[in-house]
Every structure is written in C-alpha cells, then in structure tokens.
Amino acid sequence: MKPMLLPGPVLHRNFKRARDEITELLRLSPPGKVIVLVGPTQAGKSLIFQYAVRNLSVELQPKSPAHIPFVHLVVATSQDGRISPKYLTLRLLKLIRHPMHEHVGDFDESDHYRPSRGRDETSLRLSLELGMIARETLLALLDEAHHLTHTKDRELRSNVLQSIKCLGAIDRTLALFGGYELVYRGLFDSAHFAGRLICVEIAPYTNCPDDLIEWSRILKLFGKHMSLHPPSLLLEEVETLLYAANGVFGLLEKILWLARARSHGKAITREVLRSAFPTQAEHDVIKRDIEAGQRAIARLRNPSFDTSASASTPRTKQRRRPFQRNPNRKLPTYPKVSNE
After folding, report:
1. Which residues make Cβ contacts (< 8 Å) with residue 54, sequence separation at least 6?
2. Alpha-carbon distance 14 to 242, whole Å?
3. How do the domains of the chain map onto residue ranges?
4. CA-angle at 36, arms to 285 and 163, nearest 5°
5. Which of 35, 65, 146, 330 holds its CA 20 to 30 A away from the CA of 74?
6. In degrees rounded to 5, what are phi and psi of residue 70?
7. What CATH fold (topology level) applies to the domain 13-201?
8. Within a 10 A sphere around the Cβ of 147, how many other Cβ atoms?
9. Which residues contact 79 (CB under 8 A, 6 or more apart)?
10. Which is nearest to 97 in space by CA: 122, 58, 128, 141?
11. pLDDT tens-digit readout, 293-304
12. Binning pLDDT at 50, 70 and 90, where does residue 321 land?
C-alpha cells in the first residue's frame, strides 16, 4: 500500500495476511472455485486486486496470440446504480477479443462488421462461454464486485450472478474483490456460488491486545513523518483513532490527511485532529456494514448444523427370522403374577 502521508508502502499485518492468502489461493486453487476477498471500504481490496493482476501477468504468459489465460475488469454500474447482466457480458466479450463484439462501443465501430442479430442476452452469454473456451481462459478477476448485489430484488441479484456463471465453470476459477455486501447480500442467493465459495477477509482492527499493538505501530510510523503537538499525540489517541476509523487503515489515513490540510502547515494539535474525525452518520453506516459482513462470514466459517449424529457409530440391526415381530419391551403396567 502507498499512503499519501508516508514516503513508502506500509505492509501492515491484516493487509499482508489477506494479500498473501489470496495470492496462494489464486496460484494453487483447483479450477471450479469462487474465491472472494471482502472487507470494509478503504481497506485496500483494490490494491490487492492490482497486485494479483501484476503477478498473474508474469506467471501466466500467453502461449500464442490467440491465448488469453486470464481476464480482469472493474465492475461498474450501468443503470440506476445497478449492474446490467447484458452490459457485464458485453464487457467480458471485449476483453477476450471476441471477433463479433470486440469493437462494440469504439469510435470506429461503424468501420467493422456488425451482425444484424446476436445482441440479445442469451446469444451474448453463449458467445462468452464458447469464446472463453476458445481462448483457454482459466481465471477471471472482478474488482468492485459488490456492485453485482446493488438491488433489493433477490431474483434480480440471482440473475446477475447467474450471468457470470460461465466464469466459474468446472475448469475455470472466478475471483471477486469487493465490500462486505458480497457475503451478507447476494452470494448465498445462488447455490452455484455458495457450494464453491472460498472467502478471505481483509479485516479491520479491533480493540483486542494484538490489534492494539499493530495499530500503535501504524500510528508510530505516521507520527515519524508528521508534525504533531505534542509529538506523542497519535499514541495518546490510539483508542480514539481506532474507534473513529472503525479500525480501517485507509480511513485512518483519510483522517490524518484531512487534519494535516486543516493545520495549514503548522503542527497538528489535538483539536485539529479531532475536527477531522468523520461524522457520526458516516461512522455508523461503515460500522453497520462491517458488523453485517462479519456476521455473515462467521456463519460461513462456523456451520450451525449438528455433526454429532453423523459422527456416532451406527447401531447394527439384529438378524431375525422372517415375519418375526419386534419385541415390545415397553409394557403399559407391571405383569400380575397369579397365586394359583
């Protein structure tokens, strides 16, 4: 990560863990899986996406001009804040350089052959599936993938996910990078994804002892490159800054950058630092998103069904002669013994 306030990148603990895990999963995961990286806003998901693309560009060299080993794109909304399945499919067709759709939307589109038919959604999906087979594309990466869930209509969300079903085929891996919305609203609407899902979280820091130590280390690093009054200001405000930034590195950087701008070249005081804190509404909406996402991840990692019954040793049935009734050992009353 390359913060605006520091001269070099900061590989803090949670970022490095998520980056290394995603790198290994993309390198070693068998085909047919859906790998998902989720986290809060400004946590560094897009930076990990860019890092993964650079690594894959080196490791997956095309064997011929027609070979496209992987594709990547940033998902963008196309209408009413939502993503259109047709729009997404068309963008992917352009990435694999499909001869029928490669020049759609270009300035010189009219100079190329344009089929009179074949722009309906079914034809586009079929073209994408066959095109990726022809290009031998084994991996697809989508950044800002939480845009896929931007609708309250569960059926529409399911349709959008099904529109990229061919990206997660049995011989292909799909990697999604996005906000927590991916896990608490959308992915489990489709059994196709739920059964193949591998989830990685770039988690925010909390007030547990280990996280506070790492958070203090980050603040010490910032303190060395900022003018503060007193010099220990950031360390004195460890827990306050942790709460204000919801434990997210990028949100902490935003606070410190705004405080430096408001100090007008002078040393940052406690009053100026606190004036750069987010509003309560901004803080709460990010906190709710984090809590909802981590609850969904906890359900994913901690199955609620009871496995004790399946683990017990099955009882063996006693062999009986044909047509012999089961003995009734639950008598309604004790048997009476006659004195005669």
Report:
1. none
2. 14
3. 13-201, 209-281
4. 95
5. 65
6. -150, 155
7. Rossmann fold (3.40.50)
8. 22
9. 87
10. 128
11. 999 888 776 655
12. low
